[in-house]
Amino acid sequence: MLATSSVFFSSAVMTAPDENIFPAYLTATVTKIAVDINRRAESALAAVAMRSVKLSSAPVPNRKARNELCSDIENAGRAAALSDNKRLRTMQWLVVGLSATLLLLLALLTYRQIHKTRRLRILAMTDEVTNLPNRQHILTFLGDQAKVAYESEQPISIIVFEIDNLKSINEAYGHEGGDIALKAVAGITHQALRRGDRVGRISDEEFLVVLPGTERLAAIEIADRIRGLIQGIPSDTSPAMQGITISLGVSEWNAGHESIDALVKRADKALKEAKMDRKNCFVEK
């Protein structure tokens, strides 16, 4: 009976419905098993009791028959006690199995919730088109790195850049073509950066590159390298990538003399000057 119940119990766990109602389903399943065990045990005890009644009500012709009758009644009592013990052990195993399964379920649900929360947090900080940090994420990173730079008296620079004529690409090839251009620029820029640098998308057309521990001249070299890599994208990659270029604004933070917002505005102003000049270039400000 215990083996049969265990198989039924395992099958119930494997075929359980939605995880949100699984605990109630599991409890109901175990209750059903317990009721079934009790019903079988009671049937067995009733059969023993009936036999005892029949034996006790039968005529007893002699002492030998009387002794046999007493022995049969005693054996029936022992069988009933044994049945009770088996039923108790079965119920104990069911309780142990239920407890272990509920603990396993709780651990599984906790892990899934943690994983889901982490995934949602990452999605909330990621630009869905480029898979780069979004505006909030990259600006938070810039603020953290600026604090480190200020405390350690180290330089920090930023680059703000845009894809030239992205609007024209969208008009010619649709937003799908624009997304292709954005993804390509994002991937090339990310690969061109050093360990510790980070790039994020801060608007439809603008990207922000954070360069911790980098002074103005080194930031200019990085900006020009990124510009050259974007300009060198093969034109046969996609029609939307033909002749794609970027314009950049480069600024080093004046620690202690300006805010992070002022730094970003200064780099953005340099970017606007680059776009007004001839595009496909950088301006340091």
List key phrases describing it:
single chain; 285 residues; alpha+beta; Alpha-Beta Plaits; 5-stranded mixed beta sheet; 5 strands; 67% helix; elongated; disordered N terminus
Short description:
The chain is an alpha+beta fold and 285 residues long. 67% of the residues lie in helices and 10% in strands. The protein has a 5-stranded mixed beta sheet, sandwiched between helices.
CATH fold description of the largest domain? Alpha-Beta Plaits
Number of domains: 2
The CATH homology group name of the largest domain: Reverse transcriptase/Diguanylate cyclase domain
Number of strands: 5
- Look at the helices and sheets and give the structural class: alpha+beta
Global shape = elongated
Q: Roughly how many Å is the radius of gyration?
A: 39 Å
- Major pleated sheet: 5 strands, mixed
In whole angstroms, the N-to-C terminal distance is 84 Å
Give the second-level CATH assignment, the architecture of the largest domain.
2-Layer Sandwich
Low-confidence runs: 1-17
Q: Report the mean per-residue pLDDT as an integer.
A: 80
| Strand portion | 5-15%
SSE string, helices as H and strands as E: HHHHEHEEHEHE
Helix residue percentage: 55-70%
Strand order, largest beta sheet: 2-3-1-4-5
Regarding CATH, which class of the largest domain?
A: Alpha Beta
